[in-house]
Amino acid sequence: MGAALTKTLRMMVLGFLAGILAGGWGMAAQAPAVAGDEAGGAGSGAAAAKAPAMAKGFEWGPFVNAGTGLGNRDNFQFLSAGLQAGKVLTPVIGHGLLAGQFEYGVNIMPLWLGFTPAPHEQTFIEPGGVYFVGPDGGGTYVGASITPVIFRWNFVKRSKRVQPWFQAAGGLIYTTHKYPPDLLVPHGYAGGTSVWNFTPQGGGGIHWFLDNGRSIDLGVNGVHISSASLGDRNPGVNASVQVQVGYTFWR
Question: Which end of the chain is more exposed for a tag (fewer CB within 10 A), N or C?
Answer without folding.
Answer: N
